Amino acid sequence: MLRARIAATAAYQAGTPRTTAELAIASAQTRSIDELQRMIGIDSRHFADAGETVASQAAVVVQLALDKAGIAPCDVKRLILTNSTGFDMMCPATSNVVLDILGMDGTCGCLDINNACVGFLSGLDYAARMVHTGISPVVVVASELGSQHIRPDDPRPYLIFGDAAAAAVLTEPEAGAHVGFSASHFGNYGKYRESVVMYHASLTGQRETLQFLKPGKEIAKLAVLGLRTVADDIFAQSGLNWDAVDWVVPHQPNGTMLKDIADLFGISTEKLVPMVQYVGNVGSASTAVGLAELYRTRTVTSGQTILLIGVGGGLSYGGLLYHVG
Known about the structure:
The chain is of the alpha/beta class.
């Protein structure tokens, strides 16, 4: 058991909501709006206003989470920032900007992580290990501006990606409390890396945009492969199964895939908190927003278990089993 407590969570959507109907017009879709919404299961998503950055979104939601936890920014020992599309700059780490905005200069270590849509879960895994070894509090924040990397003439990503940020604050649990992360599994299949890509401009000479290079059905098969690998290992470690887990927080790429995944693994809808319909696909922030929504909209009680699980480009996959304290 990695002894670490999720002390607070928060989510944030900058800018204004954009409906699927609006984007369908912009991308000159021939399908009806009803058909499109049935296909993707997304009604709206936010596009951040001009001037919003990965760091500015992250700073807002980190402050929200710290306020909930009753922790001052200057008391944080580590900050981990995740993003799927390259952050605000190549060097230095964008997390440095977050520290500066929040007045944390000289008080906190920080780093950036890009593990596609599994980045937030990777950050949680690292944060739990830090807290378990006495480094506390640690903040993990996912901040995504997918709207900056899509274009109307490529409708597959254009119709599903949105902008959001979410954070979790991890602290040391009380002595003797059965709380923390009892199982985890992470892996990558590099040979499948070109299913979802965003090439650097130095390679293409063109604007950096998210692209789907594989058919949707093939991407869905890879997603199932990753999720099954994670779940099988976590359940082998813990002795639990889908029925024994109280809450499931999966990556939500679109509404259709979320439903298909729930049906395939027999996950009860009562254990899920669907939010992709009004958030869209927000990369590494998806599981982060999902966790925040779970705590915001459901009664999560001591002794319950939460399975956080995701899959993304790479092919990256991972998950953690958390015992609530």
